Amino acid sequence: MGATITKEDFSRISLSLAAAVIMIIIGAGVVYASLQLHEAEKKGKAMAQARQKESQEKLARARDEELEIKKKIARFNELSNRGIFGEELRLDWIELIRRIKEARKLIDVRYEIAPQQVLDAGILPGSSGSYVYLTSTMQLRMKLLHEEDLLNFLSDLRASAHAYIRVRRCDVERLPRASDSSGIPPQLGADCTIDWITVREKKAA
Questions:
Q1: Residues 6+ apart with CB under 8 A from 86
Q2: Count of domains in the chain?
């Protein structure tokens, strides 16, 4: 004989099913909330890491810029101390060449310095910011006992000149043997083109 479901049994079953559905909904809500919280934490962590990385990159760029500025200031001070900024001092240059010739006991030093002009005029802009770069080109001819005479002369020139010394070219050739000369004759002849570069502040228009 089969069991008969009464009205009371059906009410109890309905209540149990409703409770089960409610528990399932609550459980699903808890799981969803947990997933959303976990996702929010991941996004928050990613954003924090991105902000930290951005801050580190900004700090690194600031340090690089600070280092570059310090280098430029040091270079500016070095050039300034060497007298490169301002008017060219030709009389000082001439006196410097004379002193080097005597100190190094060089045989023969001859030179001509051309009029000053803007550096690389017509090819490169001869200015940067508030400064203009000027050059006076010197044609130098020397008679040498050996190549070191030339190297020492150029080294002394760079170390002491109130200008930036740029050697554009230097040709060295062996001289013919002199049979009737007294003392030790020069062995080599040097022909050089040298720029004496100075920097001047632009005048206000």
A1: 198, 199, 200
A2: 2
